[in-house]
Design a protein that fits this description.
The complex is a heterodimer of chains A (about 475) and B (about 450).
Chain A: H1 4-14, E1 21-37, E2 40-58, E3 61-67, H2 72-86, E4 99-100, H3 118-133, E5 139-157, E6 161-180, E7 183-193, H4 199-202, H5 205-220, E8 227-234, H6 240-248, H7 253-257, E9 278-281, E10 302-307, E11 310-311, H8 318-323, E12 332-333, E13 342-343, E14 347-350, H9 357-362, E15 366-378, E16 384-396, E17 399-404, E18 407-412, H10 413-418, E19 420-423, E20 428-429, E21 433-437, E22 440-448, E23 451-459
Parallel strand pairs in A: 4-6, 8-15, 14-22
Antiparallel strand pairs in A: 1-2, 1-5, 2-3, 5-6, 6-7, 8-23, 9-10, 9-14, 10-11, 12-13, 15-16, 16-17, 16-18, 18-23, 19-23, 20-22, 21-22
Helix pairs in contact in A: 1-2, 3-5
Chain B: H1 2-12, E1 19-36, E2 39-57, E3 60-66, H2 71-85, H3 112-115, H4 119-135, E4 140-159, E5 164-182, E6 185-195, H5 203-215, E7 226-232, H6 234-247, H7 250-254, E8 275-277, E9 300-304, E10 307-308, H8 315-320, E11 329-330, E12 339-340, E13 345-347, H9 354-359, E14 363-371, H10 373-376, E15 383-394, E16 397-410, H11 411-416, E17 418-421, E18 426-427, E19 433-434, E20 437-445
Parallel strand pairs in B: 7-14
Antiparallel strand pairs in B: 1-2, 1-4, 2-3, 4-5, 5-6, 7-20, 8-9, 8-13, 9-10, 11-12, 14-15, 15-16, 16-20, 17-20, 18-19
Helix pairs in contact in B: 4-5
Classes of the chains: A alpha+beta (about 475), B alpha+beta (about 450).
Chain lengths: ~475, ~450
């Protein structure tokens, strides 16, 4: 992507004021999105983002600057700005020579998005619209979105590392509005993978659209959600968001280092039910949160965070692992070359259990069954978190009965982890997510089998 | 800035016959300084610019952008947008904006003292903010973040229909997140100070707010489920207004995604609610004299004494609704075509002091923070359920702190259930201002 001599030169400038560590991150990203809404293909957008982010570390301070100008002059200017921002103690600096490291590479995608005619992408959207509307006249609005991106990155640092990656992601989503006597309701489905256009050999967008439509229609007869503490069963795939919020963020080493996590200082302790083995795995080929190297050039890891209920490790990036004298876990990620990397999740999942999912529901006297979760949010310092239910039902006498309206559930991470008393054998990955932290969004995946929490607070309006 | 407008006009001038072209160019400079342990944790100096081009041809719309302004990219971006338009389906209302004779508000949103502020002074702000937060209360044991952020923003819009507008704004804020601890319990609280110039920033206010918010939650317990009155902190109200603003756009109405679609002229809120979007208000952090399509921004009263009185429009939704743009085109930076949105929402303040309003609540919850607004509030159906923390109000006095509960209603009901509006008005780094609201009959779910 960039001449190695120019990389050496840029890093040498970055280190010239006495920096301890310098890094240059080059990104070239092309993306396409197409939106179908209100009965027609509304718009196609294509974009190009290309630039370099340069950071310099001195002691506890990081200086960072970025530029869209990849010429020698542009890179030198940014390297000087980053070095000045890090406020190096001065000194002579040293020359940097990088050499490519051997990193795992994914096989090339089967169908590169840029090789697919725009008409082929647009056609999927009309298909989805027609399929959604075929579910019935109550479907009053449909929007469908297609998106692809190809992100090439190069990371080089003053330790001599140089690594490159080529990441292709493809995404498709459908949102429906149903109109009935009770007003408007919505249903959404999405699929996203770190692969090319072959996604649509595996995924029937018509099926996806019909599921979204049925979800909206079902909710037209939803009754107000109950309020108060009760058992909650979460269906396969969906529960990943729960763990992402209940403990995922709290296991990020940057928050732990500032004591802004309830899980700080608890490695080796039992923090969850023995049923819970929690992984964060960036190596899961094809999954939405997958990559071969992270945005610091470190290979993706397969990291066990909780092993049968015992906290085994946090997630690490370069800065925090270096302070601890250990290696990164491959969790250093950033939204773009305009952002500093920090500790982020990849694909976070709970290892499959042994219980029969039907039995889990049947043995729940009364409670709530959540078939699809929305997003969530957590305060890592207190552990209190929420997550939304976008398709949920009452459980009455061990049976799934009436649909209920949308709302949040609230719980405390460390408490909820100990209250998981059943884990199904029906593991599935959930929908593609965008995880936000400090204003940066990165693609993340998650997965779980069916599971039951003995008590969670459901935030409805009904008594 | 003249060169941004010059470039935008030049590219718009490349429109072919029968084709409409709109060019948006932005240049932004940002600094973010984070302090930790009395030192700079990170200092980010950003300079970015980009171009977004919209082409409308045969009533079809295409868009393309590039995060750089190289001469070769300008032509490539226009060509790509033109190509994209060929794949969209026609809509007779598509088109760029046409000048409507409204003149730009005479307000100055640019402060040269921010543009001239030295890096050392920015660092000093962040370090002093961390120090003041830690010193504000002995129970403050740490911080999650203490930062100074500034931005200098310049933009230009030019169209083949003759629009040529430019704007520049400065903004800065201090933001601190405190960790408080007592008797083994940890709680967090944030504080802000926002402005256009460094002289607007007040370290003591940001630090003091963070300390009060964090320490008053110490010892918080879960409350039993009940129906009660809630008092929404200005910060919570501002976030709520952001969501309501969405439902009041012409785009949401036309596409059948607004719960207010058929309600024009009807009672949609308590009489005490008058909701205004006024991007020309220089006090608003997000104020701008020019909208995303190059038209002058202007004030719009959306709800007047509880009666729904207007929707916001860009040129597309205005044309399609048989009315006109309200200068409310907003853009997601240069990476997307203009949509419709509020820029500076506020509820016209009432007459009463927030403290007096609290004193009148017999059994209620002062809601200091809500969470999961994106996951538990559906602006299409109106379902409203969020995580909440705050302080109980008993007999008009603040009582025990509460955590891990939700508050729920519907947006429709919630607006009608507002029983009082405070006389406070606080602008935040978002598209709405906060005002204390008292809302009756909310379900609080807890133990």
């Amino acid at each position: 992507m960039l001449d190695h001599e120019l990389v050496n030169q840029t890093l040498t400038v970055a280190m010239s004021t006495g920096g301890e560590f310098a890094e240059v991150f080059i990104e070239d990203k092309r993306s396409t999105s197409a939106l179908f809404d209100d009965g027609r293909v509304e718009e196609l957008t294509s974009g190009r983002d290309r630039g370099a982010g340069i950071r310099v570390v001195v002691g506890g301070s990081t200086g960072f600057a970025h530029t869209a100008d990849l010429s020698e002059a542009g890179l030198t200017h940014a390297a000087r700005a980053a070095a000045a921002a890090a406020r190096g103690a001065g000194g002579s600096g040293r020359a940097v020579v990088v050499s490519p490291v051997d990193v795992p590479r994914d096989p090339p995608v089967r169908i590169a998005p840029e090789d697919v005619a725009k008409a082929g992408k647009v056609e999927l959207l009309s298909l989805a619209d027609a399929a959604a509307r075929s579910e019935g006249p109550s479907i009053s609005q449909v929007s469908a979105r297609y998106g692809d991106s190809r992100r090439r990155i190069l990371v080089a640092n003053s330790d001599g590392l140089l690594a490159e990656d080529d990441q292709v992601r493809t995404l498709f989503s459908v949102s429906c509005v149903a109109t009935g006597d009770t007003g408007l309701q919505t249903g959404r489905e999405s699929v996203g993978r770190t692969i090319g256009f072959e996604l649509f050999d595996q995924t029937d967008v018509g099926d996806l659209a019909r599921r979204a439509a049925r979800r909206a229609i079902t909710k037209l007869r939803a009754r107000p959600a109950p309020s108060g503490e009760m058992p909650v069963v979460v269906g396969p795939g969906g529960g990943g968001v729960l763990f992402h919020e209940a403990c995922g963020h709290g296991l990020e080493a940057d928050l732990v280092a500032k004591s802004a996590s309830v899980f700080a200082g608890r490695v080796g302790e039992k923090v969850a039910s023995h049923l819970v083995t929690l992984m964060d795995d960036g190596t899961m080929s094809g999954e939405w949160g997958h990559f071969t190297i992270d945005d610091e050039g470190h290979p993706a890891g397969q990291n066990v965070l909780i092993d049968e209920g015992v906290l085994t490790d946090y997630m690490w990036d370069r800065l925090r692992s270096r302070k601890q004298g250990r290696t990164s876990s491959g969790n250093g990620r950033r939204q773009s070359y305009q952002h500093l990397p920090m500790v982020r999740m990849t694909n976070t999942y709970i290892v499959n259990g042994a219980d029969d999912p039907a039995e889990i529901v049947a043995t729940t006297e009364s409670g709530v069954y959540v078939a699809q979760l929305g997003g969530g949010q957590v305060n890592t310092a207190t552990g209190d978190f929420v997550f939304g239910m976008t398709e949920a039902y009452l459980i009455e006498n061990g049976e799934i009965t009436e649909p209920i309206r949308e709302g949040n559930l609230v719980g405390n991470g460390p408490e909820v982890l100990t209250r998981i008393d059943a884990l199904g054998d029906d593991f599935a990955m959930g929908s593609p997510g965008m995880c936000g932290k400090d204003g940066q969004g990165v693609p993340v995946g998650d997965g779980t089998p069916t599971l039951r929490v003995t008590s969670l607070t459901v935030g409805g309006t009904a008594a | 800035m003249p060169e941004l407008l010059e470039t935008a006009r030049r590219v718009a001038g490349w429109a072919k016959g029968g084709e409409q072209v709109e060019v948006f160019i932005v240049r932004e400079r940002n600094t973010e300084v984070r302090a930790y342990d009395g030192e700079v944790e990170s200092l980010t100096a950003s300079e970015s610019h980009g171009i977004g081009v919209r082409v409308v041809s045969d009533s079809r719309q295409g868009y393309a952008y590039a995060g750089a302004l190289d001469e070769s990219l300008l032509a490539e971006t226009l060509a790509e947008a033109r190509d994209n338009a060929a794949f969209a389906q026609p809509d007779e209302f598509n088109g760029v904006a046409v000048a409507d004779g409204v003149t730009l508000a005479d307000v100055d949103l640019f402060r040269s003292d921010l543009a001239d502020l030295s890096t050392d002074d920015k660092v000093a702000f962040a370090i002093e903010l961390e120090r003041a937060t830690l010193a504000a209360d002995r129970r403050i044991v740490g911080i999650e973040s203490a930062e100074f952020v500034d931005m200098i923003y310049e933009s230009a819009v030019a169209t083949s229909s003759g629009i040529a507008s430019s704007a520049r704004e400065t903004g800065c804020y201090l933001s601190t997140h405190a960790l408080a601890e007592a008797d083994g319990d940890t709680q967090t609280g944030f504080g802000f100070s926002v402005g256009r110039s460094p002289t607007d920033l007040d370290v003591a206010i940001a630090a003091g707010d963070a300390a009060v918010r964090a320490t008053r939650l110490l010892g918080a317990v879960k409350a039993p489920t009940s129906r009660l009155t809630v008092v929404l902190d200005p910060w919570v109200t501002a976030q709520l207004l952001g969501i309501i603003g969405h439902t009041l756009t012409g785009e949401a109405v036309l596409k059948g995604r607004s719960l207010f679609a058929e309600r024009m002229g009807e009672d949609v809120a308590s009489m005490s609610i008058t909701l205004v979007d006024d991007p020309t208000d220089p006090a608003a952090f997000t104020a701008s004299t020019v909208d995303g399509e190059g038209l002058a921004t202007r004030p719009t009263t959306l709800i007047d004494g509880g009666i729904l009185s207007a929707f916001l429009h860009n040129s597309y939704s205005g044309r399609r609704s048989g009315t006109a743009s309200t200068g409310s085109a907003v853009r997601p930076g240069f990476k997307g075509a203009p949509s419709v949105g509020a820029r500076a929402l506020r509820i016209v303040p009432g007459a009463r002091d927030p403290a007096d309003l609290i004193a009148e609540v017999d059994n209620g919850l002062l809601v200091q923070e809500v969470s999961g607004l994106h996951s538990g509030v559906n602006p299409v159906s109106g379902d409203f359920s969020t995580g909440a923390e705050g302080v109980m109000i008993r007999g008009g006095e603040l009582a025990e702190a509460i955590r891990e509960v939700t508050i729920a209603s519907t947006l429709q009901r919630l607006l009608h259930d507002v029983v009082a509006v405070g006389n406070d008005l606080e602008w935040l780094p978002m598209n709405a201002a906060g005002t204390t609201l008292v809302v009756a009959d909310i379900t609080m779910s807890g133990s």
